[in-house]
Amino acid sequence: MALKVLTVDDSKTIRMIVKKAFQPYNCVVFEAENGVEGLAAATKEKPGLIILDITMPVMTGIEMLDRLKGDASLKDIPVIMLTAESGKDNVVNIVKKGIKDYMVKPFKGEDLLERVRKFMTLEPKTEEESPENKAAKYFTQVEDIVVLTLPAKVTRPVTVEVEGSLQTKIKDMTAAQLKKMILDMGGVSETNVSLIKLIIAAFQQCQKSNVAVKLVASPKQGEELKGFQETSQIAVASSIDEAKGSL
Amino acid sequence: MSGIQTVDLKSFVTHSVNSVFETMLSMRLAPEDPPNRQGVTAGKHFVGTVGFAGAVMGNVNIAVSREFAREMTAAMLGMSVEEISSDEEVNDVIGEVCNMVGGDLKSRLCDAGLTCSLSIPSITFGDGFRVESKGWDRHEQFGFRNSHHSALLEVYMKSPN
Q: What are A20-30's pLDDT values in tens digits?
Protein backbone atom coordinates (compact mmCIF):
# COMPACT_ATOMS: atom_id res chain seq x y z
CA MET A 1 0.00 0.00 0.00
CA ALA A 2 1.27 3.45 -0.89
CA LEU A 3 2.57 5.63 1.94
CA LYS A 4 0.36 8.67 2.41
CA VAL A 5 2.43 11.83 2.87
CA LEU A 6 0.82 15.12 3.83
CA THR A 7 2.75 18.31 3.03
CA VAL A 8 1.45 21.38 4.86
CA ASP A 9 2.99 24.63 3.66
CA ASP A 10 1.61 27.98 2.54
CA SER A 11 4.19 27.99 -0.24
CA LYS A 12 3.16 26.09 -3.34
CA THR A 13 6.83 26.03 -4.27
CA ILE A 14 7.78 24.07 -1.17
CA ARG A 15 4.82 21.71 -1.61
CA MET A 16 6.01 21.04 -5.16
CA ILE A 17 9.55 20.34 -3.99
CA VAL A 18 8.25 17.89 -1.38
CA LYS A 19 5.97 16.24 -3.92
CA LYS A 20 8.80 15.88 -6.42
CA ALA A 21 11.08 14.35 -3.79
CA PHE A 22 8.61 11.54 -3.09
CA GLN A 23 7.75 10.94 -6.76
CA PRO A 24 10.08 7.96 -7.32
CA TYR A 25 8.60 6.17 -4.29
CA ASN A 26 5.38 4.35 -3.65
CA CYS A 27 3.79 7.38 -2.02
CA VAL A 28 0.68 9.48 -2.46
CA VAL A 29 1.28 13.10 -1.53
CA PHE A 30 -1.58 15.25 -0.22
CA GLU A 31 -1.27 19.01 0.11
CA ALA A 32 -2.61 21.61 2.53
CA GLU A 33 -1.94 25.34 2.68
CA ASN A 34 -2.17 25.96 6.41
CA GLY A 35 -2.70 24.30 9.76
CA VAL A 36 -6.48 24.25 9.53
CA GLU A 37 -6.47 22.57 6.14
CA GLY A 38 -3.66 20.34 7.32
CA LEU A 39 -5.65 19.10 10.31
CA ALA A 40 -8.66 18.41 8.13
CA ALA A 41 -6.52 16.49 5.64
CA ALA A 42 -4.79 14.55 8.42
CA THR A 43 -8.14 13.56 9.95
CA LYS A 44 -9.53 12.48 6.59
CA GLU A 45 -6.50 10.74 5.07
CA LYS A 46 -4.67 9.48 8.17
CA PRO A 47 -1.26 9.96 6.51
CA GLY A 48 1.78 7.92 7.42
CA LEU A 49 3.97 11.02 7.45
CA ILE A 50 3.43 14.78 7.74
CA ILE A 51 5.90 17.38 6.45
CA LEU A 52 4.89 20.51 8.31
CA ASP A 53 5.98 24.11 7.82
CA ILE A 54 6.05 26.38 10.86
CA THR A 55 5.30 29.89 9.62
CA MET A 56 1.89 29.83 7.93
CA PRO A 57 -1.15 32.08 7.97
CA VAL A 58 -4.49 31.02 9.52
CA MET A 59 -2.88 28.37 11.73
CA THR A 60 0.87 27.93 12.21
CA GLY A 61 2.64 24.59 12.11
CA ILE A 62 3.27 24.76 15.85
CA GLU A 63 -0.45 25.14 16.56
CA MET A 64 -1.28 22.33 14.18
CA LEU A 65 1.32 20.11 15.83
CA ASP A 66 -0.20 20.81 19.26
CA ARG A 67 -3.64 19.82 17.95
CA LEU A 68 -2.23 16.67 16.36
CA LYS A 69 -0.58 15.66 19.61
CA GLY A 70 -3.83 16.28 21.45
CA ASP A 71 -5.83 13.96 19.20
CA ALA A 72 -5.52 10.27 20.09
CA SER A 73 -6.12 9.18 16.51
CA LEU A 74 -3.44 11.49 15.05
CA LYS A 75 -0.80 11.86 17.75
CA ASP A 76 1.38 8.98 16.54
CA ILE A 77 1.75 10.21 12.96
CA PRO A 78 5.43 11.02 12.46
CA VAL A 79 6.02 14.69 11.73
CA ILE A 80 9.01 16.40 10.15
CA MET A 81 8.95 20.15 10.70
CA LEU A 82 10.29 22.59 8.13
CA THR A 83 11.59 25.89 9.37
CA ALA A 84 13.36 28.84 7.82
CA GLU A 85 14.84 29.58 11.23
CA SER A 86 17.89 27.70 12.42
CA GLY A 87 18.28 29.63 15.70
CA LYS A 88 19.05 27.47 18.74
CA ASP A 89 15.93 28.54 20.66
CA ASN A 90 13.67 27.81 17.73
CA VAL A 91 15.17 24.36 17.19
CA VAL A 92 15.01 23.45 20.87
CA ASN A 93 11.36 24.53 21.02
CA ILE A 94 10.23 22.42 18.09
CA VAL A 95 12.26 19.36 19.07
CA LYS A 96 10.59 19.43 22.49
CA LYS A 97 7.20 18.99 20.87
CA GLY A 98 7.78 15.36 19.98
CA ILE A 99 8.49 15.60 16.31
CA LYS A 100 10.51 12.96 14.46
CA ASP A 101 12.92 15.42 12.91
CA TYR A 102 13.20 18.94 11.54
CA MET A 103 14.72 20.54 8.47
CA VAL A 104 16.01 24.05 8.14
CA LYS A 105 15.29 25.78 4.84
CA PRO A 106 16.93 26.00 2.36
CA PHE A 107 16.89 22.27 1.73
CA LYS A 108 16.99 19.88 -1.19
CA GLY A 109 14.47 17.10 -1.76
CA GLU A 110 17.21 14.50 -1.24
CA ASP A 111 18.00 15.93 2.20
CA LEU A 112 14.37 15.52 3.19
CA LEU A 113 14.31 11.90 2.01
CA GLU A 114 17.47 11.22 4.00
CA ARG A 115 15.69 12.39 7.16
CA VAL A 116 12.64 10.27 6.37
CA ARG A 117 14.75 7.16 5.78
CA LYS A 118 16.13 7.45 9.31
CA PHE A 119 12.84 6.19 10.70
CA MET A 120 10.91 4.62 7.81
CA THR A 121 11.55 2.66 4.65
CA LEU A 122 10.52 4.21 1.38
CA GLU A 123 9.48 1.61 -1.17
CA PRO A 124 10.44 2.44 -4.74
CA LYS A 125 7.55 2.48 -7.16
CA THR A 126 6.85 -0.94 -8.66
CA GLU A 127 7.97 -1.55 -12.24
CA GLU A 128 4.54 -0.71 -13.57
CA GLU A 129 4.57 2.64 -11.84
CA SER A 130 8.23 3.52 -12.44
CA PRO A 131 8.94 6.51 -14.68
CA GLU A 132 10.97 4.32 -17.04
CA ASN A 133 8.11 1.91 -17.52
CA LYS A 134 5.63 4.71 -18.01
CA ALA A 135 7.90 6.13 -20.68
CA ALA A 136 8.21 2.75 -22.43
CA LYS A 137 4.84 3.40 -24.07
CA TYR A 138 6.50 5.97 -26.33
CA PHE A 139 8.85 3.42 -27.93
CA THR A 140 8.06 0.84 -30.61
CA GLN A 141 10.26 -1.11 -32.98
CA VAL A 142 9.81 -1.38 -36.75
CA GLU A 143 12.25 -3.93 -38.18
CA ASP A 144 15.68 -2.73 -36.99
CA ILE A 145 14.50 0.80 -36.23
CA VAL A 146 13.30 2.08 -32.86
CA VAL A 147 10.50 4.64 -33.19
CA LEU A 148 9.99 7.21 -30.47
CA THR A 149 6.46 8.57 -30.88
CA LEU A 150 5.78 11.77 -29.02
CA PRO A 151 2.35 12.38 -27.48
CA ALA A 152 -0.05 15.15 -28.55
CA LYS A 153 1.06 17.44 -25.76
CA VAL A 154 4.73 17.61 -24.84
CA THR A 155 4.96 19.18 -21.42
CA ARG A 156 7.86 19.47 -19.05
CA PRO A 157 6.90 16.24 -17.16
CA VAL A 158 6.68 14.36 -20.48
CA THR A 159 10.10 15.70 -21.44
CA VAL A 160 11.56 14.52 -18.14
CA GLU A 161 9.87 11.13 -18.53
CA VAL A 162 11.09 10.56 -22.09
CA GLU A 163 14.57 11.97 -21.59
CA GLY A 164 15.00 9.81 -18.50
CA SER A 165 14.20 6.62 -20.39
CA LEU A 166 15.95 7.51 -23.63
CA GLN A 167 19.40 6.88 -22.22
CA THR A 168 18.41 3.39 -21.07
CA LYS A 169 16.71 2.74 -24.38
CA ILE A 170 19.81 3.74 -26.33
CA LYS A 171 21.96 1.48 -24.14
CA ASP A 172 19.56 -1.41 -24.86
CA MET A 173 19.73 -0.56 -28.55
CA THR A 174 23.52 -0.58 -28.53
CA ALA A 175 23.53 -3.97 -26.77
CA ALA A 176 21.09 -5.28 -29.39
CA GLN A 177 23.15 -3.68 -32.17
CA LEU A 178 20.28 -1.46 -33.24
CA LYS A 179 21.66 1.76 -34.65
CA LYS A 180 18.64 3.60 -36.08
CA MET A 181 15.95 5.71 -34.46
CA ILE A 182 13.01 7.69 -35.75
CA LEU A 183 11.64 10.51 -33.68
CA ASP A 184 8.01 10.92 -34.71
CA MET A 185 6.43 14.24 -33.70
CA GLY A 186 3.67 14.04 -36.29
CA GLY A 187 0.99 13.70 -33.59
CA VAL A 188 2.20 16.61 -31.51
CA SER A 189 -0.40 19.37 -31.45
CA GLU A 190 1.77 22.27 -30.34
CA THR A 191 5.40 23.19 -31.00
CA ASN A 192 6.61 24.54 -27.68
CA VAL A 193 9.91 24.96 -25.87
CA SER A 194 9.59 21.61 -24.07
CA LEU A 195 9.26 19.89 -27.43
CA ILE A 196 12.28 21.73 -28.85
CA LYS A 197 14.36 20.81 -25.82
CA LEU A 198 13.29 17.19 -26.09
CA ILE A 199 14.19 17.00 -29.78
CA ILE A 200 17.63 18.47 -29.11
CA ALA A 201 18.24 16.14 -26.17
CA ALA A 202 17.18 13.12 -28.24
CA PHE A 203 19.45 14.09 -31.14
CA GLN A 204 22.38 14.73 -28.81
CA GLN A 205 21.95 11.40 -27.03
CA CYS A 206 21.69 9.54 -30.33
CA GLN A 207 24.73 11.25 -31.81
CA LYS A 208 26.75 10.53 -28.69
CA SER A 209 25.98 6.83 -29.03
CA ASN A 210 26.36 6.71 -32.82
CA VAL A 211 22.68 6.04 -33.36
CA ALA A 212 21.38 7.51 -36.62
CA VAL A 213 18.23 9.53 -36.00
CA LYS A 214 15.61 11.01 -38.29
CA LEU A 215 12.81 13.36 -37.36
CA VAL A 216 9.28 12.90 -38.72
CA ALA A 217 7.04 15.97 -38.72
CA SER A 218 4.24 17.48 -40.76
CA PRO A 219 5.15 20.27 -43.23
CA LYS A 220 3.60 22.82 -40.86
CA GLN A 221 5.64 21.50 -37.95
CA GLY A 222 8.73 21.52 -40.17
CA GLU A 223 8.21 25.23 -40.76
CA GLU A 224 7.70 25.87 -37.06
CA LEU A 225 10.93 24.04 -36.23
CA LYS A 226 12.79 26.35 -38.58
CA GLY A 227 11.66 29.24 -36.38
CA PHE A 228 13.79 27.92 -33.52
CA GLN A 229 17.51 28.42 -33.93
CA GLU A 230 18.28 25.08 -32.28
CA THR A 231 16.14 23.02 -34.66
CA SER A 232 16.37 25.16 -37.80
CA GLN A 233 19.05 22.92 -39.34
CA ILE A 234 17.40 19.56 -38.62
CA ALA A 235 16.22 17.75 -41.73
CA VAL A 236 12.61 16.61 -41.46
CA ALA A 237 10.88 13.64 -43.11
CA SER A 238 7.15 13.82 -43.68
CA SER A 239 6.41 10.14 -42.92
CA ILE A 240 7.87 7.12 -41.17
CA ASP A 241 8.45 5.45 -44.54
CA GLU A 242 10.35 8.44 -45.84
CA ALA A 243 12.44 8.51 -42.67
CA LYS A 244 13.13 4.76 -42.93
CA GLY A 245 14.29 5.23 -46.48
CA SER A 246 16.75 7.92 -45.56
CA LEU A 247 18.28 6.17 -42.56
CA MET B 1 20.94 49.86 20.13
CA SER B 2 24.58 48.81 20.49
CA GLY B 3 23.76 45.22 19.54
CA ILE B 4 22.08 46.46 16.39
CA GLN B 5 25.09 48.52 15.42
CA THR B 6 27.65 45.81 16.07
CA VAL B 7 26.17 42.74 14.36
CA ASP B 8 28.10 41.78 11.25
CA LEU B 9 25.20 42.23 8.83
CA LYS B 10 27.33 41.90 5.72
CA SER B 11 28.56 38.43 6.57
CA PHE B 12 25.09 37.36 7.83
CA VAL B 13 23.40 38.52 4.63
CA THR B 14 26.07 37.14 2.30
CA HIS B 15 25.87 33.74 3.96
CA SER B 16 22.05 33.70 3.86
CA VAL B 17 21.81 34.75 0.21
CA ASN B 18 24.49 32.34 -0.97
CA SER B 19 23.02 29.44 0.97
CA VAL B 20 19.47 29.99 -0.36
CA PHE B 21 20.44 30.66 -3.97
CA GLU B 22 22.88 27.77 -4.19
CA THR B 23 20.71 25.20 -2.43
CA MET B 24 17.30 26.05 -3.82
CA LEU B 25 18.14 27.60 -7.19
CA SER B 26 21.53 26.06 -8.02
CA MET B 27 22.59 29.62 -8.74
CA ARG B 28 25.78 31.30 -7.63
CA LEU B 29 25.68 35.01 -6.87
CA ALA B 30 28.63 37.30 -6.37
CA PRO B 31 28.57 40.49 -4.31
CA GLU B 32 28.01 43.63 -6.34
CA ASP B 33 29.42 46.80 -4.85
CA PRO B 34 27.96 49.36 -5.24
CA PRO B 35 24.54 47.72 -5.59
CA ASN B 36 22.90 48.16 -8.99
CA ARG B 37 19.60 49.69 -7.82
CA GLN B 38 18.91 51.23 -11.19
CA GLY B 39 19.38 47.91 -12.99
CA VAL B 40 16.97 46.16 -10.66
CA THR B 41 14.23 48.78 -10.42
CA ALA B 42 14.31 50.43 -13.86
CA GLY B 43 11.45 48.32 -15.21
CA LYS B 44 8.87 46.01 -13.67
CA HIS B 45 10.28 44.38 -10.60
CA PHE B 46 9.38 42.36 -7.52
CA VAL B 47 10.14 43.30 -3.95
CA GLY B 48 9.77 40.60 -1.32
CA THR B 49 9.55 41.85 2.26
CA VAL B 50 9.73 40.00 5.52
CA GLY B 51 9.61 41.69 8.91
CA PHE B 52 11.05 40.70 12.27
CA ALA B 53 10.07 41.98 15.69
CA GLY B 54 11.29 41.45 19.25
CA ALA B 55 14.53 42.63 20.84
CA VAL B 56 15.20 44.05 17.41
CA MET B 57 12.65 45.30 14.89
CA GLY B 58 13.28 45.32 11.20
CA ASN B 59 12.60 44.48 7.60
CA VAL B 60 14.43 42.56 4.93
CA ASN B 61 13.58 43.59 1.38
CA ILE B 62 14.78 41.67 -1.65
CA ALA B 63 14.30 43.36 -5.02
CA VAL B 64 14.81 41.66 -8.38
CA SER B 65 13.74 42.52 -11.92
CA ARG B 66 10.79 40.66 -13.39
CA GLU B 67 13.17 38.78 -15.73
CA PHE B 68 15.37 37.63 -12.88
CA ALA B 69 12.34 36.71 -10.78
CA ARG B 70 11.10 34.49 -13.61
CA GLU B 71 14.52 32.85 -13.96
CA MET B 72 14.58 32.22 -10.22
CA THR B 73 11.12 30.68 -10.40
CA ALA B 74 12.10 28.39 -13.26
CA ALA B 75 15.24 27.32 -11.40
CA MET B 76 13.40 26.61 -8.17
CA LEU B 77 10.56 24.68 -9.80
CA GLY B 78 12.76 22.81 -12.29
CA MET B 79 11.06 24.14 -15.40
CA SER B 80 11.83 26.52 -18.24
CA VAL B 81 10.94 30.21 -18.05
CA GLU B 82 8.40 29.72 -20.86
CA GLU B 83 6.57 27.16 -18.76
CA ILE B 84 5.79 29.60 -15.95
CA SER B 85 2.05 29.94 -16.25
CA SER B 86 1.42 33.01 -14.09
CA ASP B 87 2.94 35.66 -11.85
CA GLU B 88 1.40 33.76 -8.94
CA GLU B 89 4.18 31.17 -9.21
CA VAL B 90 6.76 33.96 -9.31
CA ASN B 91 5.20 35.63 -6.26
CA ASP B 92 5.35 32.38 -4.37
CA VAL B 93 9.02 31.78 -5.18
CA ILE B 94 10.07 35.35 -4.33
CA GLY B 95 8.12 35.06 -1.09
CA GLU B 96 9.79 31.78 -0.23
CA VAL B 97 13.27 33.06 -1.07
CA CYS B 98 12.58 36.11 1.09
CA ASN B 99 11.30 33.90 3.89
CA MET B 100 14.42 31.73 3.81
CA VAL B 101 16.87 34.62 3.65
CA GLY B 102 14.92 36.48 6.37
CA GLY B 103 14.65 33.30 8.45
CA ASP B 104 18.38 32.67 8.29
CA LEU B 105 19.15 36.27 9.15
CA LYS B 106 16.64 36.19 12.00
CA SER B 107 18.26 33.05 13.40
CA ARG B 108 21.65 34.70 13.35
CA LEU B 109 20.24 37.75 15.11
CA CYS B 110 18.65 35.50 17.75
CA ASP B 111 21.92 33.65 18.26
CA ALA B 112 23.61 37.04 18.66
CA GLY B 113 21.20 37.82 21.52
CA LEU B 114 18.68 39.82 19.49
CA THR B 115 15.70 37.51 19.93
CA CYS B 116 12.90 38.20 17.46
CA SER B 117 10.04 36.62 15.51
CA LEU B 118 9.56 36.56 11.78
CA SER B 119 6.52 37.68 9.80
CA ILE B 120 4.98 36.04 6.74
CA PRO B 121 6.51 37.51 3.58
CA SER B 122 4.67 39.99 1.38
CA ILE B 123 5.35 40.75 -2.26
CA THR B 124 5.07 43.99 -4.20
CA PHE B 125 5.20 44.00 -7.99
CA GLY B 126 5.14 46.83 -10.49
CA ASP B 127 7.28 49.64 -11.82
CA GLY B 128 8.07 53.20 -10.82
CA PHE B 129 8.00 52.50 -7.11
CA ARG B 130 10.56 52.33 -4.35
CA VAL B 131 10.05 50.58 -1.04
CA GLU B 132 11.64 52.76 1.62
CA SER B 133 11.26 52.46 5.36
CA LYS B 134 11.79 55.42 7.68
CA GLY B 135 13.01 55.93 11.23
CA TRP B 136 15.46 53.07 11.51
CA ASP B 137 18.63 52.94 13.57
CA ARG B 138 20.49 51.04 10.91
CA HIS B 139 19.87 50.67 7.20
CA GLU B 140 22.18 48.80 4.86
CA GLN B 141 21.91 47.65 1.30
CA PHE B 142 23.77 44.82 -0.37
CA GLY B 143 24.06 44.07 -4.07
CA PHE B 144 24.40 40.63 -5.61
CA ARG B 145 24.81 39.56 -9.19
CA ASN B 146 24.91 36.50 -11.42
CA SER B 147 26.06 36.65 -15.03
CA HIS B 148 22.91 38.39 -16.25
CA HIS B 149 21.01 39.98 -13.39
CA SER B 150 21.40 41.98 -10.23
CA ALA B 151 19.58 41.60 -6.93
CA LEU B 152 19.27 44.19 -4.21
CA LEU B 153 18.85 43.29 -0.56
CA GLU B 154 18.09 45.92 2.08
CA VAL B 155 17.99 45.48 5.82
CA TYR B 156 16.36 47.98 8.19
CA MET B 157 16.79 47.56 11.95
CA LYS B 158 15.89 49.46 15.10
CA SER B 159 15.50 48.92 18.82
CA PRO B 160 11.90 48.44 19.99
CA ASN B 161 11.95 51.53 22.18
A: 899 889 999 99
Q: Which domain holds residue A193?
A: 131-246
User: What domain count does chain A have?
Assistant: 2
Categorize the per-residue pLDDT at B80 as very low, low, confident or very high, splitting at 50, 70 and 90.
Answer: confident
* Residue B121 per-residue DSSP state: P
Domains and CATH numbers, chain B: 2-158 (3.40.1550.10)
CA B48 to chain A, closest CA, distance in angstroms equals 14
CB contact under 8 A, A84 and B102: yes
One domain for residues A195 and A169: yes
CATH of residue A41: 3.40.50.2300
Contacts of B95 in chain A (CB under 8 A): 11
Please indicate, yes or no, if residue A122 is contained in any of the structural domains: no
Helix (H) or strand (E) holding B59: strand B57-65
ipTM score assigned to the predicted complex = 0.79
| Chain A touched by B120 (CB under 8 Å) | yes
A140 and A85 in one domain?
A: no
For residue A128, pLDDT over 70 is answered with no
* Minimum CA–CA partner of A10 in chain B: B92
pTM score: 0.67
Cβ-based neighbours of A94, under 8 Å, separated by 6 or more: A54, A62, A81, A83, A102
Does residue A14 share a domain with residue A110? yes
- B54 has a chain A CB within 8 A of its CB: no
Secondary structure E strands in chain A: 3-8, 27-32, 49-53, 79-83, 101-104, 139-142, 145-149, 180-184, 212-216, 236-237
